[in-house]
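User: Hi! I'm working on a homework problem where we have to compare a predicted structure to a textbook description. Could you give me the structure for the chain below?
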Amino acid sequence: MKKSIIVLIVCAMQAAFVSCEYDSPEIRFQQTTNITNDYSEIVAALRDQTLTIAQKMSLIEEAMKMQTLTVSEKLALLEQALKDQTMTLSDKMTLMTRAYESGVVKYEELTDKLISEIKSAGTTTAEKLEAIKSVVEAQTTDLKAKMDLIEKAMTQLSETTEKGFDKSAAASGLVKAAIESLKGSVDEKLAAISSAISSQTTTLAEKIALIKGSVDAGLVGENSTLALVQKAIEALSGSVEEKLAAINGAITSQTTTLTEKLALIKGSVDAGLVGENSTLLS
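Assistant: Happy to help. Predicted structure tokens:
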């Protein structure tokens, strides 16, 4: 104790930019974060084997906000940190998310990194899903980008996960999280959902997932499903045969609820794709 007090007093007398060696990594880390204000100092700190992953992560998160570092330097520091073999998938995605929030990386770069890590990370499905959810929630305005990420991530996860994985349930939960994390009022969220449903680049399966997510998130009631499904059908692109194939695929899907199936059939009739007596959709 006496030695530690003496060391602390000595260190307190050092110049502001001199790093002191303490017996305690926690104290050393506090001093490092106080004096670290340029690229070379942060590189040295990241190589310090006495610092924990949590300490290094905190250092990088602060570095992403520093005005004294260039974007190139921030990216280099981020890449160096991500190479740490002791860092979990969750740790890596937390750092990437902070970099995104600080404007250092684009959302596309964040999602690409996530997909790449899902391919190689030796982590559980639950950890991968949690990482996907964190990235979905990090971006709060572009619902289409969220849906694109969910589709890519679930496709990759289906190829790497264990047998018996319930892809439908997992995707449904992620879509709900995507909708709930949208920024703005209820009306603004509904407008974003309506825009995505009306988009011709959104598949019918994604449209149905959005409708279900809206219901699950409490933004719309079950009685609103019909109107949304009709809008989804009207926005479909392609020939009549292609539209009918998409509708038939959605109706026969095990992830589509009975309410949605009935709405799809009625929507097909209202859109003039089939007659009321047609047995094409069954």
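For your comparison, note the following. DSSP finds 15 helices and no strands in the chain. Residues 1-29, 31-35 have pLDDT under 50 and may be disordered. Good luck with the assignment!
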